[in-house]
Design goal:
Blueprint: H1 38-60, H2 64-68, E1 74-78, E2 83-86, E3 92-96, E4 100-106, E5 109-110, E6 113-115, H3 116-120, E7 135-138, E8 143-146, E9 160-170, E10 179-187
Parallel strand pairs: 2-10, 6-7
Antiparallel strand pairs: 1-3, 3-8, 4-5, 4-9, 7-8, 9-10
């Protein structure tokens, strides 16, 4: 049994009410273009502008370490620059890159700096070592730490703003080629 395939010249049946070139008045398909709604255009424009503004804001935002404006040789300072609501017994901490050392100057007073390796001396593992009440330089981590205490030059930070300056240099170059960084914090 053979089936007949429809020929190319046959016309397919049209649905009732369907627009086609054969049914239109002039043989062209009629296209209906709607007028855009003004409220949708305004809302789309506002959304587009907002997305562009968010993108620009994210691309130019300065956060974290970049916000601090720290020199390349300083990885972190604490309390952070311009910190407010800092407790009176807060620790001043500077994390330098490996190979650097330095001294702290707090409110114009240069604090003595003691190397932690020298303080340990010949102490046996597990033996308690008394740390002097001054700035401690830990060469293994290249950090400077000062804790106010009754025995130290600064027993506690008074209420108000305090200025901290760290003078730092490469250990192999010596203090003669030192650089400095200054920041402040406010004690409540």
């Amino acid at each position: 049994m053979t089936t007949q395939e429809p020929s190319c010249t046959e016309q397919w049946p049209q649905r009732e009410g369907a627009n086609s070139a054969l049914n239109s008045e002039n043989g062209r398909v009629r296209i209906h273009i709607r007028r855009p709604q003004l409220s949708l255009l305004v809302a789309s424009f506002i959304i587009a502008i907002s997305l562009v503004a968010i993108g620009i804001g994210i691309s130019i935002a300065v956060t974290g370490v970049d916000r601090e404006g720290l020199p390349a040789a300083i990885e972190e300072v604490s309390p952070p620059r311009a910190a407010s609501q800092v407790p009176a017994q807060t620790q001043v901490f500077v994390d330098l890159q490996s190979g650097y050392t330095g001294v702290l100057i707090i409110d114009g007073l240069e604090l003595e700096t003691v190397n932690l390796d020298e303080v340990r001396g010949n102490a046996k593992p597990g033996q308690e070592v008394r740390v002097p009440p001054t700035t401690i330089f830990e060469p293994g981590n290249a950090t400077l730490t000062f804790d106010p205490s009754p025995e130290s030059t600064i027993s506690e930070f008074s209420q108000g703003e305090h200025l901290v300056k760290v003078i730092f240099w490469k250990i192999i170059e010596g203090r003669g080629r030192a650089l400095s960084y200054t920041w402040s914090f406010t004690v409540f």
